[in-house]
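Support request, please re-run this one:
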Amino acid sequence: MSVETKALRDVVAGSIDRQWLAWSAEHPHLARAIDRTRLVNEAVDRLEDDEGFRAALRAADLDERRLVEAAEVLAVAEGWVRRALRW
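Re-run finished. Output below.
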């Protein structure tokens, strides 16, 4: 696995992890049947093949490593939004 693919995989896995708990509570039987590692790998493969995704990276002047950094910033922002919505 290339460094770029690993970086993208980390972003996708983090996104799935942040949403998994709520989604699996709504779909418990399906959640038990899904292999999360395979789900992440399939999502990464599709993103790597998606020209729209590649164009968005180019437009934002991002490579996969910078995408990881941007995703970390967005994850912090998501956390603040979730906390704000609990009030």
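The chain has a mean pLDDT of 84. The chain has five helices and no strands.
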